[in-house]
C-alpha cells in the first residue's frame, strides 16, 4: 500500500515536471497532442509569493523577450502570461526555466488571446513592428494601429479592470486608439490607460548624468509632452539634483534626448531599434505600476495619459500611481523661456498625432 502511494506521488511529480515540456494543448500549444497526465494546468510553482498577474502582448519580439525576462525577475509578479502570434512557445519555455517565483504560461496566436488576458492585473503591450532606418514613427502607424486595436478589444472583453501599459509606437497615437476602443466597449477608465514614456526619462537621466559627471541613478529629469521627436520635452530647468546648465548644453541635451531612438536605429544599421533599453524602461515603469497597485505611497513617474494639464486630451507629465492606476496628475511646474517655446512646438505635433489615432477608430 505504501509502495502504491509512493508510486502515485512519483507519477504526480513526473507529470508536473513533464507538463513544463508539454503543457496543456488547450491553453498554450494547440499543435501538441493531448497526453494523459501531462497537463500544464496541474503545473504550479511552489513557494511563489502572492503577487500580481501580468500579461505581455508581443512577448516574442525584440522588446517583448527582454521585457519578459525582466518581469520574470520581479518579485511582485506571481503569474506571467506571454502572448504573441509567433514564437511564443519557445520564449515561454526559455523564460520558465528561471528559478524565480512567477509562474509562466505561453499563448500563441489570436485564438488564445482571450485566455492570455483573462484575470490579468497589468497588461503590457510592446506588440508591433519596429522602426527601421529612415522610418519615422508615423510610418509605423497603419500596421501598429491595427495591432493595438485588436489587442485592446481583447482587453476590454477579458480584463477591463487591468492597468494597461502601451509601448507600441507611435505612442502619441496608439494611446488615443486604445482609449477609443475602450470607449466603444464601455470599459474606458482613463486612470488605467498609460503610455510608457519612461525611456525618454531614462535617456535624459543618463545623458544629463554624463554631462554633469553624476551617477545617472541619482539624476531625475522630468520629461513631458509625448514620445516622438519634438514632442519629447525634457525639463532641464527642473533637474534633480539642481544644477546649472549652459544654453549650449541645454540645446545639445534636448536634441539628443529627442533623437535617442534614431541614434540607436542608425547605430544598429538596419538590425533593429531601441529594444533593450526600452525593455528596461518598460520593466521599470511596470514595477512602479505594481508597487502602486500594492498600495505603496509616493510612486511618481512620467507617463502619457488622459490629462488636463494642457488643452490637449493626452499629455505626458508626472503622475502619482496607486491602486487604481493614475491617482493624480501633477502640475508641470515652472518652465523657462526655452521650455515654453518647446512646449508650443510639442503641442502642435501632439494634437495632430492624437487626432490621427482617434480618427483611425472612428473613420
From TrEMBL:
Record GO cellular component, one term: chloroplast
Active site: 227 (proton acceptor)
Limits of the Lactate/malate dehydrogenase C-terminal domain: 197-360
Compartment(s) where it occurs, according to its Swiss-Prot or TrEMBL record: Peroxisome
One Pfam family per UniProt: Ldh_1_C
Binding-site positions, substrate: 131, 137, 169, 203
Principal location class: other
EC number annotated for this UniProt entry: 1.1.1.37
SUPFAM superfamilies reported for this sequence: LDH C-terminal domain-like, NAD(P)-binding Rossmann-fold domains
Domain Lactate/malate dehydrogenase N-terminal: 53-195
Matches recorded under InterPro entries: L-lactate/malate_DH, Lactate/malate_DH_C, Lactate/malate_DH_N, Lactate_DH/Glyco_Ohase_4_C, Malate_DH_AS, Malate_DH_type1, NAD(P)-bd_dom_sf
Leading EC class: oxidoreductase
Binding sites annotated in the UniProt record for NAD(+): 58-64, 84, 144, 167-169, 278
Keywords from the named record: Glyoxylate bypass, NAD, Oxidoreductase, Peroxisome, Tricarboxylic acid cycle
One example GO MF annotation: L-malate dehydrogenase (NAD+) activity
Keyword NAD: yes
One GO-annotated biological process of the protein: tricarboxylic acid cycle
Highest taxon in the source lineage: Eukaryota
Reaction catalyzed: (S)-malate + NAD(+) = oxaloacetate + NADH + H(+)
Keyword Transport: no
Membership in a protein family: Belongs to the LDH/MDH superfamily. MDH type 1 family.
Subunit structure: Homodimer.
Cited PANTHER family: MALATE AND LACTATE DEHYDROGENASE, MALATE DEHYDROGENASE 1, PEROXISOMAL
Protein name (Swiss-Prot/TrEMBL): Malate dehydrogenase
Amino acid at each position: 500500500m505504501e509502495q502504491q502511494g509512493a508510486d502515485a506521488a512519483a507519477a504526480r511529480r513526473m507529470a508536473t515536471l513533464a507538463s513544463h515540456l508539454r503543457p496543456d494543448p488547450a491553453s498554450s500549444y494547440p499543435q501538441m497532442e493531448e497526453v494523459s497526465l501531462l497537463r500544464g494546468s496541474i503545473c504550479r510553482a511552489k513557494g511563489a509569493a502572492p503577487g500580481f498577474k501580468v500579461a505581455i502582448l508581443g512577448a516574442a519580439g525584440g522588446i517583448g523577450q527582454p521585457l519578459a525576462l525582466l518581469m520574470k525577475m520581479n518579485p511582485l509578479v506571481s503569474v506571467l502570461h506571454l502572448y504573441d502570434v509567433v514564437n511564443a512557445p519557445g520564449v515561454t519555455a526559455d523564460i520558465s526555466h528561471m528559478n524565480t517565483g512567477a509562474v509562466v504560461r505561453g499563448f500563441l496566436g489570436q485564438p488564445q488571446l482571450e485566455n492570455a488576458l483573462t484575470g490579468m492585473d497589468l497588461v503590457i503591450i510592446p506588440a508591433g513592428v519596429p522602426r527601421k532606418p529612415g522610418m519615422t514613427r508615423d510610418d509605423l502607424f497603419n500596421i501598429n494601429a491595427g495591432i493595438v486595436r485588436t489587442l485592446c478589444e481583447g482587453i476590454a472583453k477579458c480584463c477591463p479592470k487591468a492597468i494597461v501599459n502601451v509601448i507600441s509606437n507611435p505612442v502619441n497615437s496608439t494611446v488615443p486608439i486604445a482609449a477609443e476602443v475602450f470607449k466603444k466597449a464601455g470599459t474606458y477608465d482613463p486612470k488605467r490607460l498609460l503610455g510608457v514614456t519612461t525611456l525618454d526619462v531614462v535617456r535624459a537621466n543618463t545623458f544629463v548624468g554624463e554631462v554633469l559627471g553624476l551617477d545617472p541613478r541619482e539624476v531625475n529629469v522630468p520629461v513631458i509632452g509625448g514620445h516622438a521627436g519634438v514632442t519629447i520635452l525634457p525639463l532641464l530647468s527642473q533637474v534633480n539634483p539642481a544644477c546649472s546648465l549652459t544654453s549650449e548644453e541645454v540645446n545639445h541635451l534636448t536634441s539628443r534626448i529627442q533623437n535617442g531612438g534614431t541614434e540607436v536605429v542608425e547605430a544598429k544599421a538596419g538590425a533593429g531599434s531601441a529594444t533593450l533599453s526600452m525593455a528596461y524602461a518598460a520593466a521599470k515603469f511596470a514595477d512602479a505600476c505594481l508597487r502602486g497597485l500594492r498600495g505603496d505611497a509616493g510612486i511618481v513617474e512620467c507617463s502619457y495619459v488622459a490629462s488636463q494639464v494642457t488643452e490637449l486630451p493626452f499629455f505626458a507629465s508626472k503622475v502619482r500611481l496607486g491602486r487604481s492606476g493614475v491617482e493624480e496628475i501633477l502640475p508641470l511646474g515652472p518652465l523657462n523661456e526655452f521650455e515654453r517655446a518647446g512646449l508650443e512646438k510639442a503641442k502642435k505635433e501632439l494634437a495632430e498625432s492624437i487626432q490621427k489615432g482617434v480618427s483611425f477608430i472612428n473613420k
